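Re: Re: ligand-bound prediction request (bumping)

Still looking for help on this. To restate: I need the protein modeled with adenosine monophosphate bound, output as structure tokens. Inputs repeated here so nobody has to scroll up.
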Amino acid sequence: MIPVEEAAERILAPVRVLEAERRSPLDALGQVLAEDVRAAFSIPPADNTAMDGYAVRAADTAGARSDAPRYLRVVGELHAGRAPGVAVEPGTAVRIMTGAPIPPGADAVVQFELTTEASPGAAKAGLVGVLRPASPGSNVRRAGEDVREGQLVFSAGVELRPAEVGVLASLGLTSIAVVRRPRVAILSTGDELRSPGEALAPGTIYDANSYSVAALVRRYGGEPTLLGIARDRADDLVARIRAGLDSDLLITSAGVSVGDYDLVKEVLAAEGEIGFWQVRMKPGRPLAFGQIRGVPVVGLPGNPVASMVAFEQFVRPAILKMLGKRRHRKPEIEARLVGSADNRDGRRCFVRASVAREGDGYVATVTGPQGSGILTSMSQANGLVVIPEDVPEVTTGDRVRVQMLDWPEVE
Ligand code: AMP
Ligand code: MG
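Reply:
Sorry for the wait, this slipped through. Here it is.
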């Protein structure tokens, strides 16, 4: 048996970052920039007002008080989206709306609330009274205060979140180079499997793994393709595996343990260079890894929980690495355990648990029976309690480490 870390390292070592593609910023959400992005112009492109109010010369407002307003002649009105027209000469003001450019001559904006516009009793025709002195620059958003022309806005390697998508749009960009998403082919194997939508005959069950694995692939940024279900026959396995070889990664499930019909091992080995590992973990001991015609192949165990747990340990990091991401690991927290689990044969156990806050810390409650076929135990869990190889059992009250499956990855 090989340790979990060794299996993880050996799977990750040959995986390479994929090449770039061009996409719209919105379609590239979650992908990693493959180019530096520089600003072709400043944002905002011109000084503009942060408030609805009056553009003034600050010097004209010196000494203004609410009981002795400084009156200025209103010489124009400016909405956002208009080019500045009339200039602000001494003794005048331009009525101006948020986002409108500051007219020539003005150096401050007085919001409506600090003018006689807000106290109609003091209004005078054609004039506005300023109730408080304005300092130069007040309520003015400077050209380039967000982004300066020529500035390096994002370096290659940045992961696009909603804020980056917005910044790229504010730069006027309609396409950018990002590391493309890996295409991941998924093959379930087993005579007993039927697809949802088909009728179940005695002895058959629905194929869960194609869907849980495809959902994991999609969650972590890959593009899954379902190759369907291969029967436990070499010819069918070979044909379907070959159909997946135009992908960046091929994932099979089941047929990698020691049963009479576990042909996946033999077929994978005959088609390419594949190793079979017994990984020192529970669930998920049997695992195949290698490559067929240059395509990395991971053979996950068949039990539905085991295939998901093994995916989280070994396949997620590979997909994130292909995407050019630096963060591959799930965060681990410490929690107080409720429930128990034992570990009699020195493997690393991953126990499904539901984690909640408790005071300053966390409590991790084991989600019922832990059989590796009990997929609802995975559905109830948001974390995996990790029991080290040398700890024979854990029980209520113990401090345990928990991998948080629904939290964003860390480095
Ligand atoms: P195997 O490794 O082929 O012996 O499969 C181990 C167990 O996982 C068996 O009980 C299979 O029926 C079950 N299994 C295999 N593949 C799937 C699948 N795609 N969906 C649900 N259960 C599966
Ligand atoms: Mg089988």
